[in-house]
Amino acid sequence: EKGGYETFMLKEIHEQPQAIAETIADRTARGVGVDLGDLGAIDDAFLRDVRRIVVVACGTSYHAGLIGRYAIERWARVPVEMDIASEYRYRDPVVGPYDLVVGISQSGETADTLAAMRLARESGATVLAITNVMGSQVTRDADGVLFTRAGLEIGVAATKTFVAQVAAMYLLALRLAELRGTLPAARLRELIAELKRVPGSVAALLERGDDDVQAIARRHYKAEFFLYLGRHIGLPVALEGALKLKEISYIATDAYAAGEMKHGPIALLDDDTPVVCVATDSPVLEKLISNIQEVRVRGAHVIAVATAGNDELQEHADEIVAVPATDWMLAPLLAVIPLQLLAYRVARLRGLDVDQPRNLAKTVTVE
Ligand code: M6R
């Protein structure tokens, strides 16, 4: 049942090209634009005129939402608010008929996410669910559903469902941009074409093997603390990488917007602290590189995830893992892969059960 892999998590990491491809397949099959299919009560007119989007989710699903926020705001120019579902439900949120509330839940059964969505719906908002499980509770509570098609995920650590959620958020962002005319037609076409190329690039990255990541894991698996840094679209990837590592290896991690370093977290660093930087190409790469320099002069050990072909990081990082180039906004789908593998290899070196980490359940149906 593990298809020849030593764990479900490793199998599921390797199923990511398919998870993305299945999620975008027929939705981008039309010559132009994005077809989200039947979203129930959520029609094109509503999406065209929507004034605000609020995303509620927990854990890894929240990180997928954060990536979606950058895409929706940049491409479709709709303001997006994000909240952790367990916080949202208790903060008496201002939400109403002009809002689209997007609840992201792999399992479709997370108690806090369901409660946040119900609260929004009772206040008059239109609610869209993004889930991987047909017939789950969230599909009954929402006005419309956008399914991710990652297939059943057994490992407690979400991997393939995460990339499928990110792909679904990109589709939503592109559809909104199409309806609202916020992107030139040629740019929209180019982004869709690039998104369709991503599964192939993820497959190439996985086929290359992870000797580089394994070497990094061997060097650092006894560390007591890992810091993760990113900026812009790289920040949610850093957050997700840090969650993966702490969840399955039980190593303390922190993830920060790199620009926040000097406002506190830099005090944590000493000689050899591993600092993982999501440094794929982007308009803020230079800014990130200055943050990396600040870290490095404190003696930290910099591990950078960078875009293949960009040699700029060579002189700034101790170790580099390259990922295939794509449109910079889509890079999270590639950059997250080495971080999942790093968490995986570290946890295995520590002799841990990655599929069933301590204290965690796959589905959190209690508050
Ligand atoms: O099923 P959901 O997407 O609603 O679950 C949310 C979180 O519990 C989940 O993403 C959790 O953080 C994962 N174990 C992370 O790997």
UniProtKB/TrEMBL annotation:
The keyword Metal-binding does not apply. Residues 42-182, 216-357 form the SIS domain. It comes from the Bacteria. It is found in: Cytoplasm. The active site is at residue 362. It is an enzyme of class 2 (transferase). Keywords: Aminotransferase, Cytoplasm, Glutamine amidotransferase, Repeat, Transferase. The keyword Transferase applies. Its EC number is 2.6.1.16. GO terms for molecular function: carbohydrate derivative binding; glutamine-fructose-6-phosphate transaminase (isomerizing) activity. One of its GO terms (biological process) is amino sugar biosynthetic process. It catalyses: D-fructose 6-phosphate + L-glutamine = D-glucosamine 6-phosphate + L-glutamate. One of its GO terms (cellular component) is cytosol. Its main location: cytoplasm. Homodimer. Catalyzes the first step in hexosamine metabolism, converting fructose-6P into glucosamine-6P using glutamine as a nitrogen source. This is Glutamine--fructose-6-phosphate aminotransferase [isomerizing]. The chain holds residues 263 to 629 of 629 of the full protein.
